[in-house]
Design goal:
Largest sheet: 8 strands, parallel
Shape: globular
Structural class: alpha/beta
Helix content: 40-55%
């Protein structure tokens, strides 16, 4: 192992156009920035053309489109030369099974999946995939359903779009650019030697019926599917990583790199999708005992990581939730809510919107998963004398209600043993589910709860029932996470637009704001429970970049001005809807997006709006896009963009928010860089960023500009990385300089941030308005001071407010001033920028 102290990570999204060679070129810049570990998206072989890497098709090889083995060797060598480490994304939940493109000529992308399709359940590779071979549907028994056809099977067969070809490894079925194997055992000698016979549609159909898969229209996958997926993505098939052989195969290369000291950290993707997350994480920890391990786990407010998970923390969505809330005045909730209702006519609470959104997800997007749960539960119910008469429809309704009622992503019941935390969640969920389905006998829900918690009547105990219950609990827990994610993140977050900065992964738009005291409590807890967890503000999955959220949150500081402005904009732009009925909800979101991301082109805004409309699934959707409605919104955006009068109105509103927006962005950056945990910086976010949800946040980053700014070399104009007037800081030099300073002090004062003395201590203010500022000390040598009401501070300054510094002499690393001690005026301490990073002088 190579011992590289954790200071900060920098996330790179590797793509075919930004591969390992480009990442290697960045290493010197990242080292100069102060990063200790480059945190990369997966670089195992993914599906051809993958822009994210999470659709791994060969876990034993490096992605050739990223440069392959040689490029990875050069990348790791560059990291070693500059004393940097590598944190890599691990994807244990699924593999890519897209059959449309070949990784190399003549070879299937995923050889494991190909072999399963070729030989069925008898394939040695069948153990890798979570497939229901015993489906009660005779059409699917011992077959894998493949909903890949653009029209019905009969149409595609009749039109001759399914053909048989001879390849080096045998006969194959071709459909467009997709290819499927033919089991040689299914062929007669005549068929093997004369493929022309399959020009006959009846004979081709007969051959296809003998295969270990059934081709079907893509629409069939919405209702039935017999392999577990990642969420509702048919091209990502769930794997059985709980099988030791599967675990070893999926992780062999990663663990080899770990043993060789080439990687030092592991980021585990979507552990909630696993059958037994705790068991998996213990095996991973045993395999990489000294690795830094963080998990992509979404924690709801008040929820903690399970105590038995041997990990260092989450990837930071929980930190982002409380940081965003810190900058939103709780006192503005009534005014902001009233403006949203007045503008849009929306009266539903977020809780109601979430319930309807999750119901849609459960019934429309996750129907195959619910069907499988229903089948297992029906057999369990049928084996209980008192419950055998409960109908399948009722059982399905109970399961749907339970999934909708879940207040968190999942429980962690293993082998029929539920913890006290899980029992509480089960009880709360069942109580809510009963309210959702008041016509169902409550005793049926109670029986369901007994099954879930492992408390069923032991008179029913037999081996078959035990296996059914174990399987049912595991699958229920695997489905509840996608139900929550699809209902909240991918639907409700685009329907409920009261304050869009709260509509973020891991956040709750129904909870408005947070006090400084509450933030201190959250950070104190984090410093004790998971002091090495990742803290992040932007990721490849966030709906908006950190700077966009910071600017939108300013609206909560000026609710009256926001109401007047946005209602004026609606009236001014009303005729731009033409003959289409206005959608004031998407319009309200568009205006907030303009506030947060300006300058933004009409093309970028249209891309975002179309995604938002389809994710909302109200007047359009990905499955059923409404071209006429989307065209009307597109035209509205272009008309707004081309209207000079509106652009003047928008500019006049935003002008007073320019400096507060930058102050807020700097304050967030300072807090993240010094709070408990390891700060992560998403690619490009070291300067101002106006990125929105993907694909907008995955566009190429101008690293030439960043290198230039970091080095202080003149370029069109390219300022040196020193403190500047915020109004003139067009690129974000102050943000870059702040990150460099914060990471430098983390390196100088490691004991203040990592280890037993890395305490978190609130620092007190005198005469500061409530919740207007935050100050905390790490260890006994570093203090961060940041405004949490940027508009108020920019307008009126700190006034008589002072901070009570702990004993010693302190240097403000932002201002470059020394000798501060005792109670000190914030106006004098922060004369140029209203925030401070203090280092105790005798600690250097």
């Amino acid at each position: 192992m190579v011992d590289i102290p954790l200071v900060a990570t920098y996330r790179l999204q590797l793509t075919p156009t930004f591969g390992l060679s480009e990442a290697t070129d960045l290493v010197p810049y990242l080292a100069e920035l102060g990063i200790s570990h480059v945190y990369t998206s997966p670089y195992l072989q993914a599906a051809a053309g993958s822009t994210h890497g999470y659709d791994v098709v060969d876990p034993t090889a490096v992605n050739v489109e990223l440069g392959g083995e040689a490029a990875l060797d050069r990348f790791h060598a560059a990291l070693h030369h500059h004393h940097l480490g590598n944190v890599v994304d691990v994807v244990p939940n699924h593999l890519g099974v897209d059959m449309s493109v070949e990784t190399s000529p003549g070879s299937p992308q995923n050889a494991l999946w190909w072999d399963v399709l070729k030989h069925g359940e008898a394939s040695p590779s069948a153990r890798f995939f979570d497939i229901d071979w015993s489906s009660p549907d005779p059409k699917l028994r011992n077959k894998v359903l493949l909903p890949v056809l653009g029209a019905s099977y009969a149409e595609e067969l009749g039109a001759g779009r399914l053909t048989v070809t001879r390849e080096d490894n045998g006969l194959e079925v071709r459909y467009g650019d997709q290819r499927f194997p033919i089991d040689p055992e299914s062929l007669t000698d005549i068929e093997t030697n004369s493929i022309e016979r399959f020009d006959n549609r009846d004979l081709l159909h007969d051959l296809l019926e003998r295969q270990h898969y059934r081709l079907a229209s893509w629409t069939v996958g919405r209702d039935e599917l017999n392999y577990r997926r990642f969420f509702d993505v048919n091209s990502l098939a769930g794997v059985c990583v709980e099988d030791p052989f599967v675990f070893d195969t999926l992780h062999r290369r990663i663990l080899e790199w770990f043993e060789a000291g080439r990687i030092q950290g592991l980021r585990v993707d979507h552990p909630d999708g696993l059958r037994d997350p705790s068991g998996y994480l213990h095996r991973l920890r045993e395999s990489a005992p000294d690795s830094w391990i963080v998990v992509e786990k979404i924690l709801e407010a008040g929820e903690s990581l399970p105590d038995d998970w041997p990990v260092d923390g989450t990837t930071g969505y929980d930190f982002n939730r409380v940081l965003t809330a810190l900058f939103i005045p709780q006192t503005s909730v009534a005014a902001i809510s009233a403006t949203y209702e007045e503008f849009t006519g929306e009266r539903s609470s977020y809780e109601d919107v979430l319930r309807l959104s999750t119901t849609h997800a459960v019934r429309e997007l996750l129907s195959p998963e619910v069907t499988r749960l229903t089948t297992i539960a029906a057999e369990i119910f049928g084996r209980n004398i008192a419950r055998r008469d409960v109908s399948r429809d009722t059982i399905r309704a109970v399961i749907e209600a339970v999934l909708v009622a879940m207040p968190v992503y999942r429980t962690y019941v293993v082998d029929g043993v539920a913890s006290a935390v899980d029992r509480d969640l089960i009880n709360r969920t069942i109580a809510a589910a009963k309210q959702f389905e008041p016509t169902i006998d409550p005793a049926i829900f109670d029986f369901f709860a007994q099954i879930w918690a492992g408390d069923r009547d032991r008179r029913d105990a037999d081996r078959v029932v035990d296996e059914l219950v174990t399987d049912f609990i595991a699958r229920l827990q695997q489905v509840s996470g996608p139900a929550m994610a699809k209902g909240a993140e991918d639907t409700a977050f685009y329907r409920y637009n009261r304050l869009a900065s709260l509509n973020e992964v891991g956040s709750d738009p129904g909870q408005f704001g947070m006090s400084v005291e509450e933030f201190h409590l959250a950070m104190t807890s984090a410093s004790k429970r998971h002091p090495l967890g990742m803290v992040s503000t932007s990721t490849h999955d966030t709906k908006r970049s950190e700077d966009v959220r910071a600017r939108i949150s300013l609206l909560a500081e000026i609710p009256d001005q926001w109401r007047a402005a946005v209602l004026g904009w609606r009236n001014h732009n009303l005729l731009k809807w033409g003959q289409t009925e206005p959608d004031h909800n998407i319009e309200f979101l568009i205006y907030q997006t303009l506030v947060g991301s300006r300058p933004i082109s009409a093309e970028r805004m249209v891309t975002f709006a179309i995604k938002a409309m389809r994710e909302a699934k109200q007047r359009s959707s990905w499955l059923r896009p409404d071209a006429e409605y989307e065209a009307a919104v597109t035209q509205f955006i272009h008309s707004v963009d081309a209207d000079p009068q509106f652009q003047t109105m928008l500019a006049d509103f935003l002008a007073p928010l320019s400096r507060p927006g930058r102050i807020a962005a700097l304050a967030q950056t300072l807090i993240k860089a010094t709070a408990p945990g390891i700060p992560d910086f998403y690619q490009g976010s070291e300067l101002w960023t106006t990125a929105l949800v993907d694909p907008d946040n995955r566009t190429p980053v101008d690293y030439e500009l960043r290198r230039c700014l970091a080095a202080g070399i003149a370029r069109e104009p390219c300022e040196s990385p020193v403190k500047r007037v915020l109004a003139d800081d067009a690129h974000g030099v102050n943000k870059l300089a702040l990150i460099r300073s914060a990471l430098a002090v983390r390196r100088r004062q490691p004991a203040a941030f990592v280890g037993p003395n890395a305490t978190y201590t609130p620092v007190e203010f005198v005469a500061a308005p409530p919740d207007s500022a935050l100050a905390f000390m790490r260890g006994d040598s570093v203090i961060s001071i940041a405004p949490t009401r940027p508009v108020a501070i920019d307008r009126a300054g700190w006034g008589e407010a002072a901070v009570i510094l702990p004993p010693g002499l302190w240097t403000n690393l932002i201002e470059g001033t020394r000798g501060w001690s005792g109670p000190v005026s914030l106006e004098s301490l922060t004369s140029d920028l209203p925030l401070a990073l203090l280092e105790r002088q005798d600690a250097r």
